[in-house]
Each structure stands twice: as C-alpha cells, then as structure tokens.
Amino acid sequence: MKIGIFIAAHDGLQSMLTGVGVMVSSFVEAFPEIKKEIDFLKNKEIDLIGLAPYLKKDSNDFNIRIQKLTDTICKENRGRLIEISTFSDGSSEKSIWGNHLQWRGASLSAASVVNSMENKYDIIYVIGHDTIFSLIGKYLLSSKKIKFIWVPHSLDRVFDDESSSDERIKIEAEAVHAINNNPLFYFGYIGESFRDILIKEYGAKDEKLLSLINGIYGSSQSYFLCRDDIERIKTKYSIPKDKKLIFSWGRCVSQKGYDLIISAYKEFVKKFPEYHLILLMPTETSEEDYVEKVKNQIKELPQESFTAIYSFDDKLPNYVLQNSNLEMIIFASRFEGNPIIGLEALYFHKDSKILYSEIDPLKELFNNIEFATEFSLTSGDLLDKMLKVESQKKIEGSKKIKFVDNYILGLSKFFK
After folding, report:
1. Fewest 10 Å CB contacts: which of 29, 55, 104, 315?
2. H or E segment at 3?
3. First vs last Cα of the chain: how many Å apart?
4. In which region does residue 30 sit, left (phi positive, over 0), alpha (psi from -120 to 50) or beta (all else)?
5. Residue 97: exposed, middle, or buried by beta-carbon count in 10 A (0-12, 13-18, 19+)?
6. Angstrom distance (rounded) from CA 10 to CA 21
7. Which of 261, 220, 239, 234 is nearest to 343 (CA)?
8. What is the pTM for the complete model shown?
9. Inter-axis angle of helices 258-271 and 379-390, to 10 degrees?
10. CA–CA distance, 40 with 43 (Å, rounded to integer)
11. How far is CA 341 from CA 85, 193, 222, 364, in A?
C-alpha cells in the first residue's frame, strides 16, 4: 500500500515564529518516531509531503535551519517540501497569514496539489493547520481515499485580535460544515478547552474530534543549547549575572498582555531593585500600534532594570528557563489556545515561580501546580501576586507534557 501524508501550514515548515510553527516543526522532526508507533503505518510505502506557502528566501522570516530540516525529513520519507502559490508575495509571515482572501486562496492551492497527486496513492492523509488551511476539506475532490484533519490553533470566537472578522467566522463555519458532513474528515483539538468550544460554539460533532493536544518535543534541535549558543546569548543580550530574573515571552501582541506585565513591574521594581525583567517579544507578525504602546511603556522603566528583545530567538527561552537566577515566569495572556510557551515553562524550568492569568487554557496547564499562582487580568492584581510570591521559597518541580505521546494518541485513530 502506498500512502501520501500531506501537512499544510503557514509556519513551521520553512519559518518558525509562532506556536503553530513549533507544533508543525515538531511533527516533522518527530515523524520517524511517530510512524514507528502507529501500527497502520508500519511496513507501508509512505511519502511525507510538506505544503508551505511561498516565502522569499531573503525574507527576515525565512529560517534556513527549519527549511532544511523539513526538506531532509520529507526526502528521508520518500516525499518533499512543496511551495504552493497564494495571494501573498512571500515577503513575510505576516503577509502569508494575510486575511480571509489569503485563507481561501491558500486552502484552494493546497487542495489542488493534493487533488493533482491523488492517482499516485492508495490512500492520502491531509493535515491542515490553522485558519489559513481550514477550507482544504471544502476544496478536496470527493474521494473515498482522501482523509483530512483540520487543526485549529486559533478561533474567532476565542481570539479577539486583528484577525477577527465576520469573514473569519464565515470561513470557520464553512470548515466545520465540510468536516461534519464528510465521514473521512476530522478536527484535531489542541486542548480540552478548544474541544469544548468546537462543540458548543461551532457545532462540531463529538465523534469528529481527535486529540492532537499540544506538547513539547524535548529532543528537538530547537531546544538543544550548544556552547556557541550560550556564548552568543551572553554576548548579545547582556543579561545581568547578579540579579534575580523575571521572564515572559511570545509575540508582541495585545493577546500576550505585555502592557499588564510592564505596568506591574514598574511598581514592583521600585520595591525590589535587585530584579531584572526579560521580555522576548518578536514583532515580525505584530500590529504597529501595540508595539509602539509597549515601547512607550518600557521607556518609563529604569534603564538597567530590563532587557527587551523584539526579534525571535528560538534558543533564548531555554537558556533563561534553565538560569539559576530565574525567579518568576509570567503569562499575562488575554486569550490562548493551548500555549506552547506555558508547556515549555513546565517542561524546562528548574524551580521558578509561575504567575498566570485566569483564562481557561492556562488554568488547564497550571491548576494544581504548587509553584504556580493565578491572577486576574489587571496590572494591579498581577502586582499583588508578584509581591506575594516574591517572599516564597522556590519549589522544584516540572510537568513534561510530551508531544510525541499526545500526537500518537490522536493520529492512531486518524491513520487507519
């Protein structure tokens, strides 16, 4: 039996700027392990094919390491990386994400590639990530040998951001309709709260939902710190060695609540000047208004009390998480799916105190964790909780939610 496995994603195949990208790249990198553990895939001829929107190779968002990783793994599994045409000029990830026209066009382009290769395979599996590839199921040929799973990482009725619109709601409704009405189509849910939302808010059928809960692929090259990485980080960022550290990271968007963190820290550092705030806030896909707001807030902090970084550095989080001076990790998100940054914190940190906002996905991660403290979405309550935990002793502990285990659970029901 000859099998084609197609994975379509806007990030993670030749760039890695978002949590979606981390999960997509983890799937590609871990694919040799995953296929060994799924009975149906054993002793089969499998072609692994990546479908990525065209991205200019001189774009700041192009990641040669990720592109080579994808290309290598695909070729080792008889497949290849294919760049598909979309309405984007390929200048940036922001352009690739685009809007509702880009989402429809990208889904149609990806489906067209799959349709054109249908005769090569006995069975085809298609995995489409996020809204941009939600409509693949609508555009695939009617075929008894093509199976599709849509993995939403963001949803309009949860994410109140720059992508929210009536058109997005319409696209999500079309995607749900296509999946509900095809016996070979499924949803992959990244967290239990997303599962509930898909059922209650979107009308997804319960039997259509497969567990593809986010996790960490601890063996990933992305998390490996060599001596050169460590020396580069020390030299580039000048993180103080003699101060207690507070850390938060993620895209520089209102969703992540950096405005709350900076406001709370402004008062906190007056009482505890021995602390230093590190914010890794990549702006590659950010709205300019929010970036300007954050930068104006940061100007009000004592110059020596913070390190603000505006370009993504995939090695930095692990470096900071394992720093013995790290005291607090803060997640001030206003909404989330199942955040990779939270999973990374639980997986890699040594004995830091975690503060998290009172939203359901973060509660799922951190409830009943002894070293985690919840706060309401105000800078005042965050400050109160920071002051409270400052005097508390560090508690050793971690919670390793493993990507491969989670994906095998759901994909074993899809690949059959």
Report:
1. 315
2. strand 2-8
3. 12
4. alpha
5. buried
6. 8
7. 220
8. 0.92
9. 40
10. 8
11. 31, 17, 13, 14
Rounded distance between C-alpha atoms, residue 36 and residue 356, angstroms: 37
Are the CB atoms for 51 and 7 separated by under 8 Å?
A: yes
- Rounded to whole angstroms, the Cα distance separating 325 from 314 reads 20
Amino acid code (one letter) for 298? I
Torsion sign over Cα 388, 390, 394, 398: positive
- pLDDT tens digits, one per residue of 365-405: 998 899 999 999 999 999 999 999 999 988 777 789 999 99
Could you tell me which residues come within 8 angstroms of residue 71 by beta carbon, excluding any fewer than 6 positions away? 80, 81
What is the rounded CA–CA span in Å between residue 21 and residue 314?
Answer: 11
Supply the DSSP string of 132-197, one letter for each residue: GGTTHHHHS---TTEEEEEE-S--TTT--STT--HHHHHHHHHHHHHHHT-TTEEEEESSHHHHHH
Radius of gyration (C-alpha) of the chain in whole angstroms: 21
CB 132 within 8 A of CB 105: no
DSSP 402: B
Neighbouring CB atoms inside 10 A of 241's CB total 8
Task: Specify whether the CB–CB gap between 347 and 398 falls below 8 A.
Answer: yes
Distance from C-alpha of 179 to C-alpha of 84, rounded to nearest angstrom: 23
Q: How many Å apart are CA 264 and CA 352, to the nearest integer?
A: 19
Bridge partners of 307, per DSSP, are 278
- Does the pLDDT value for residue 161 go beyond 60? no
Find how far residue 141's CA is from the centre of its chain.
30
Alpha helices, H only, 244-357 = 258-271, 288-298, 316-321, 340-348
- Contact, 282 vs 252, CB < 8 A? yes
- Mind listing the pLDDT tens digit for each residue in 241-277? 999 999 999 999 999 999 999 999 999 999 999 999 9
Would you call 354 helix, strand, or coil by DSSP?
Answer: strand
226: Cβ contacts below 8 Å, ≥ 6 apart: none
Residue with token string 């999973």: 343
Could you give the CA distance from residue 191 to residue 253 in angstroms, rounded to a whole number? 22
The alpha carbon of 48 is separated from its chain's Cα centroid by a whole number of angstroms, namely 21
Q: Confidence class of residue 171 from pLDDT cuts 50, 70 and 90?
A: very high
